[in-house]
Specification:
This protein is of the alpha+beta class. The chain has 16 helices and eight strands.
Length: 506
């Protein structure tokens, strides 16, 4: 249960804590002269004002005023207690209003700029102004012999000390669920925190109670109490370090008020001032160290997360680039295939056959192994188109391809040369192979029958063959075309060969 969200219970808790802080301030952290080393209760009210909406402040004022009267009535009159309570409330209201006015969000103790705003507001504005009222009461109403400036300084630093060391801790408890985080932490973290508390308080005891201070290391021994809280704050963050720092600061104040420790001197106002200055410097340094370390840790975490996001984005981008590249490659391959493939029959077109033929000519030039070019022209194809239409003509072309392709070797290249002309590039073929292949093409073509309505359309083909003889591919095509022309002249449905540039008639 979050107590700060309970409109009835929360003011009662604040009032009880305020009374407890005032009672501790009067009886335990005050010197014999009445000088208070630190004033704890104002931190309770300031922390409460920082977490509560302004509409609920009035209930806090009432319980705090009642707690102030209850704590002071044994020492001061009701009138003086009311004045002290009003000054304390005004001090906390001023500090809370300024902090909330400059911030449009909750105070974050891990942000150095928020911490600076808190320290400036508390130490340089709210506390010195409230000290004017407190010193005036002591000087003019209570008629104390202490100089006004001395009373003002002691009130100022005492209030500021209490606010600085206790407000962060109380604010974290009220707004951040400190106890819940400690309970939910794993066991080795809890054990480490317990060991840190034992070590930190043991150092305080040795220095301030066991009195290890001496002339030889007086300047160094009080600083030893800062080591463990600073380590905890750096190790686990401000939320874990501030409670121990608060405990150490209270230990220093209580020890000094009891007359033990390195800050005790013959003049009690100097003892209080030494202790206050040490507590303020110790707490402020710890607050800043914890804030900067935590900020650096958070920034590093954010940077790591950003780098991970960038890596994921890069991977996604690389994947998209890879996909786009593959799609572009596939598209180019498809375009290249379309550019080199006859759209009607699906076999290589004239451009592709020319490339294949020129490659074969270069290969034969290097190896000396011959190849042949066969040009085939469907007989009377124009008559088929004129009589039956181009759709039937297209069916005849496709039927021709389906009939011839299975009869070819795997090394042969079959393509459409143009119109009704087709070409076969036959590597490593002699005279007998060429005749056998030609006869097979003629026979397969004669068996082609295309159904047109109730009619059957048959086709034949004329073939011209030219064998490589160290000539270019274009020359071989020309010689095969001559042989094809002769086959047409000799009656069609036949083959004419031009082997090694020599005319041969079958």
């Amino acid at each position: 249960m979050n107590v700060s969200r309970q409109p009835v219970l929360f003011p009662l808790v604040v009032g009880l804590l305020y009374y407890l802080g005032a009672w501790i301030g009067v009886h335990y952290v005050a010197l014999d002269s009445g000088i208070v080393v630190l004033w704890p209760p104002n931190s309770v009210l300031l922390a409460a004002l920082l977490v509560q909406p302004r509409s609920r402040w009035w209930s806090l004022f009432l319980v705090v005023l009642a707690a102030e009267i209850a704590a002071d009535i044994s020492v001061f009159s009701l009138f003086h207690a009311l004045l002290f309570g009003a000054i304390n409330i005004a001090e906390c209201v001023l500090a809370a209003s300024l902090i909330r006015w400059f911030l449009d969000r909750s105070l974050d103790w891990s942000e150095p700029k928020d911490l600076s705003l808190f320290l400036v507001t508390v130490f340089l504005i709210a506390s010195p102004l409230a000290a004017l009222g407190g010193a005036s009461i002591y000087s003019f109403l209570l008629e104390r012999d202490t100089p006004f400036l001395t009373l003002w300084r002691l009130w100022w630093v005492g209030d500021a000390t209490g606010l600085i060391i206790l407000t962060p801790f109380l604010h974290m408890i009220l707004s951040s669920g400190l106890l819940k985080q400690v309970v939910n932490s794993n066991w080795h973290v809890r054990m480490e925190l317990v060991a840190a508390w034992i070590a930190g308080l043991l150092v305080c005891y040795l220095i301030f109670v066991f009195d290890l201070s001496s002339e030889n290391y007086l300047a160094l021994s009080p600083l030893a109490v800062a080591v463990v809280p600073a380590w905890v704050a750096v190790r686990f963050g401000p939320l874990a370090g501030f409670p121990l720092a608060t405990a150490v600061a209270l230990f220093v104040a209580l020890a000094t008020a009891s007359g033990v420790g390195p800050f005790v001197s013959e003049k009690q106002d100097l003892s209080a001032l030494f202790a206050q200055e040490f507590i303020i410097v110790f707490t402020v340094l710890l607050l800043y160290v914890a804030a900067f370390v935590d900020q650096n840790r958070r920034k590093s975490g954010e940077l790591k997360k950003a780098l991970v996001r960038v890596q994921h984005l890069n991977q996604a981008l690389e994947e998209r680039v890879r996909q786009r590249t593959q799609e572009l490659f596939d598209a180019n391959q498809q375009l290249q295939t379309l550019a080199l493939t006859d759209e009607l029959t699906g076999i290589p077109n004239r451009r592709r056959m020319r490339v294949l033929g020129e490659e074969e000519a270069r290969r034969s030039e290097r190896s000396g192994r011959p190849f042949s070019v066969m040009l085939m022209d469907i007989d009377h194809f124009k008559r088929v188109n004129d009589q039956y239409g181009h759709a039937v003509g297209d069916e005849c072309l496709k039927a021709f391809v389906r009939a011839i392709a299975p009869s070819l070797r795997s090394i042969d290249r079959f393509g459409r040369w143009g119109g009704e002309e087709f070409m076969i590039i036959a590597p490593d073929s002699d005279h007998v192979d060429l005749l056998r292949l030609s006869e097979k093409v003629l026979e397969c073509t004669r068996e082609i029958v295309v159904d047109v309505d109730d009619q059957k359309v048959g086709i034949t083909v004329s073939i011209g063959v030219a064998e490589w003889h160290h000539a270019s591919f274009a020359k071989l095509v020309s010689e095969a075309d001559d042989a094809l022309y002769r086959a047409k002249e000799e009656g069609r449905d036949r083959v004419e060969l031009n082997l090694r540039g020599l005319r041969v008639t079958d």
